[in-house]
Design goal:
seven-stranded mixed sheet; 28 helices; binds adenosine-5'-diphosphate; globular; six-stranded mixed sheet; alpha/beta
Length: 801
């Protein structure tokens, strides 16, 4: 070990290896070989195997079964058999499975990250911080879509059996991009991972088993291109989703032509990275690092063509070279490695040959001086300058850590150069002048354009290309549409994805309606309900409580009698919780899902509490079940209730952005005390509001029982505040308060409330007693609540020619 004096002198990084013992143990346990996952089980070993290697060591990792036509046939048949039941499940049931997958990915996140790095060669920093979190994000996001498809795509059906064929650069992420939307929409899947990197897909198969996914819904057949070709051509397949090279994409297009199969292709790219002379050059240099040295440049949307404004080109290249000297190439499992290993020797050879071709065509090839590791398949970060726009390296996708530079003089020339390619996947534009950046964005022919940024991905935004980069989008609303069809597919027994719900949810992994507990012999321990303010339980300022009785007249307990001062404290706490409004929709969704999870875990207790207040056990269980479902649904909406883009004047786009009100008051009705509370508070929270809620006066315990759930669901203190007491008195205090932006008042006379709200002209919304059916899922109900939980800001942006 280096002495401290030595470390201070060199200021060098020490080794920071990530442990791989769990992955090693898993591989050792499968030393006989990995087989396919068909119909819910791993198959018996067959005849043919192929070897999978660790690119950083150039050593074998595992042997994996090579899928035959018969294997493909069995997998497609299993998917066909599973499809009617899977597609007929209510969206909420599919949402639970997808959510369970997301959770299991998170639970195994380090294992999956290490496995991905060992199999693919990518740095652990990337697999740990980018790939695996995005995988979980895709499943969570699509759990949401499973829930919402019925309302959002009326009349749509699942397509049927989807063949997913994926590449080796983001093995588990590409799996997620395809399996998550496919399952959400009610399809079943046969996936073929790439032959270099099948291991994380096989670990994923295990997760499918762990969460109890019905057999046949996901099937995984390993193998090379011949297995992929057999799968794409199989007559039992209704849709092919392919990510990979343009050549293979073209072959699949030909093979499926006229078959009626739905097809989406995400293919190669040679994406421009355009730097104008008014860009922040240091940021742009970091941008290049993320554009072309992310994942060793093995990225279809890599910014591999640097188009530099002539005046800054020399300075920019000097800065870039200085930065390249600092890039660390080496062991993917070292946490301070920037660039890992190239996936396979054949890819390394391709990179070398193309760079040599660039040199032959007059390019100046430069790479930093640091030596590469002795073992393994590595290639240094490389810059090629001095080339012509028509040279091979400026046109052909290298799929390695190699960037080429070209210069331009005017924005028009930059756009012409950017579009001088058969591809059109992505573009990155760097300028401090928003007008210029948007003008160029309008001119670039690419499916994704990043301004002053690069390689940004999210499950909520579509990803896919123009021109020879393919068609179809993955992610977001447009991605879901790829897995739906409006009519029954010819020759396919596709079920209806969105039809009437069957009476029971089969095979739900967790959180179903539990049995009610039997009567005990001891009296119950007395529980003290308090107010909930700023994430803490608080005694009421008044020092008084009021008695709560059930419908039979039996005393249920005492609840605090809140007053003006309690409301004032709650408003103050809500204002301090501004971070909740600033959190991403995804973060808010996670918290709401967590609340749903904890509601499910405590459903027996909540049911018993409602039953004790009066009414039948069945009805109480139904109310709790509905409350869980609704919380799930508003979690689904948290990252999807988008604004719109309005067509306004020419040369502009107008972004209609939804913003939360900020701090809202919500007064709940007496009926359905838990369900109404959840149905009102969750949409407000989902949209980023902080809430002061006055729960049902008749049954406040339905809300006060939730404090521990909020505490254990990562709800930030102050996002939800609960003040129990007299509805009308507290409603008036809320209406008069100047620091509350909007007030929902349900279950009483609105006139006095509206009059009292005139002070700061807060928005009010009332539903009269008996007008709302809290159990119904009427079309448009979600949207009505979400719309009233937001206000719109229109932002006008110059755009287009
Ligand atoms: P890459 O350039 O990323 O290696 P490929 O297009 O060669 O991409 O491979 C992407 C995926 O397509 C892999 O899973 C591969 O096995 C599969 N594949 C290769 N050839 C065919 C084919 N003719 N039909 C279907 N799939 C194929």
């Amino acid at each position: 070990m280096a002495a401290i004096g030595e470390i201070l002198r060199t200021m060098d990084y020490g080794p920071a290896p990530e442990a791989n013992d769990h992955v090693r143990a898993w591989l050792d346990a499968h030393s006989a070989g990995f087989t396919h996952f068909i119909d819910g089980d791993f198959t018996a070993p067959g005849e043919a195997w192929f070897e999978v290697s660790d690119p950083a060591q150039a050593t074998p990792l595992a042997r994996v079964a090579q899928g035959s036509d018969a294997d493909v046939d069995r997998a497609v048949s299993a998917a066909r058999r599973a499809h009617p039941a899977w597609s007929a499940l209510p969206g909420h049931a599919r949402a639970r499975y997808l959510y369970a997958i997301a959770r299991h990915v998170q639970k195994h996140e380090r294992f999956l990250a290490v496995l991905e790095s060992v199999d693919n060669g990518k740095p652990i920093r990337e697999s740990r911080d980018i790939d695996i979190p995005l995988v979980a994000r895709h499943f969570t996001h699509h759990a949401g879509w499973a829930e919402l498809i019925a309302g959002e795509f009326p009349g749509a059906r699942s397509v049927g059996v989807c063949a997913a064929i994926i590449p080796w650069n983001f093995p588990l992420l590409m799996l997620a991009w395809k399996i998550a939307p496919a399952l959400a929409a009610g399809n079943t899947v046969v996936l073929k991972p790439a032959e270099f990197t099948p291991l994380s897909a096989l670990a994923f198969a295990d997760i499918c088993r762990q969460i109890g996914l019905p057999p046949g819904v996901v099937n995984i057949v390993c193998g090379d291109g011949s297995t992929g070709a057999a799968l794409a051509a199989h007559p039992g397949v209704d849709k092919v989703a392919f990510t990979g090279s343009t050549e293979v994409g073209r072959a699949i297009r030909r093979a499926t032509a006229g078959s009626g199969k739905k097809l989406s292709l995400e293919l190669g790219g040679k994406s421009p990275f355009i730097v104008f002379d008014d860009a922040d050059l240091d940021s742009a240099v970091e941008g290049v690092v993320d554009a072309i040295w992310f994942n060793q440049g093995e990225v279809c949307c890599a910014g591999s063509r640097l188009l530099l404004h002539e005046g800054i080109a020399e300075r920019f290249i000097a800065k870039l070279k200085a930065r390249m000297e600092k890039l660390r190439v080496g062991d993917p499992l070292d946490k301070s490695t920037d660039i890992g290993a190239i996936v396979a020797p054949v890819q390394l050879t391709r990179i070398r040959e193309l760079v040599e071709q660039g040199r032959r065509e007059g390019g100046i090839v430069w790479c930093p001086a640091a030596p590469l590791p002795a073992a393994g398949w590595f290639y240094p970060p490389t810059l090629i300058t001095g080339i012509a726009p028509a040279s091979t390296v400026a046109e052909v996708e290298i799929f390695g850590p190699v960037a080429v530079t070209l210069t331009f003089r005017t924005p028009t020339e930059a756009v012409a150069l950017a579009n001088n390619t058969r591809y059109g996947l992505a573009a990155s534009i760097w300028s401090e002048n928003i007008n210029l950046a948007l003008d160029v964005a309008a001119g670039v022919k690419a499916g994704v354009v990043w301004l002053n940024a690069t390689n940004l991905f999210d499950a909520a935004a579509g990803f896919g290309g123009f021109k020879e980069s393919g068609f179809g989008r993955e992610g977001g609303r447009e991605g879901i549409a790829e897995y739906l069809t409006s009519a029954a597919h010819a020759g396919s027994p596709s079920g209806v994805a969105t039809g009437a719900a069957p009476s029971r949810l089969s095979g739900i992994p967790a959180g179903g309606v539990a049995e009610l507990p039997g009567d005990g012999t001891l009296p119950p321990i007395d529980r003290t309900a308090k107010l909930y303010i700023g994430g803490k339980q608080a005694r009421p300022d008044s020092g008084y409580s009021f008695t709560v009785t059930g419908t039979s007249g039996a005393v249920l307990g005492a609840a605090p009698l809140g007053n003006r001062k309690d409301i004032r404290n709650a408003v103050e706490a809500a204002h301090k919780a501004a971070n909740w409004s600033a959190a991403s929709g995804h973060n808010r969704a996670q918290v709401l899902y967590y609340i749903a999870e904890n509601l499910a875990a405590r459903s027996a207790e909540l049911t018993e509490r409602l039953r004790a207040a009066g009414g039948a056990a069945d009805a109480a269980a139904h109310e709790v079940h509905r409350a869980i479902e609704r919380t799930f649904r508003y979690a689904a909406w948290a990252d999807k209730f988008d604004g719109r883009i309005h067509s306004t004047k020419s040369r502009h786009v107008t972004l209609a952005l939804r913003e939360p009100w900020g701090v809202m008051g919500i007064v709940c009705p007496d009926e359905a005390p838990l369900l109404a509370f959840v149905s009102l508070v969750m949409p407000a929270l989902a949209m980023g509001n902080r809430v002061i809620a006055v729960p049902s006066q008749a049954m406040p315990f339905a809300a006060t029982d939730l404090y521990q759930i909020f505490d254990t669901s990562d709800v930030p203190g102050g996002a939800i505040n609960i003040v129990t007491g007299e509805r009308d008195a507290l409603g008036l205090v809320l209406a008069e308060h100047d620091d509350i932006a909007a007030l929902w008042y349900h279950g009483g006379a609105i006139g006095p409330i509206e009059a009292a709200s005139a002070g700061n002209l807060k928005a009010t919304w009332a539903v009269c007693p008996g007008d709302a059916d809290w159990y119904a899922d009427a079309p448009g109900t979600d949207a009505a609540h979400l719309e009233r939980a937001t206000q719109i800001k229109n932002v006008w942006i110059p755009y287009g020619a």
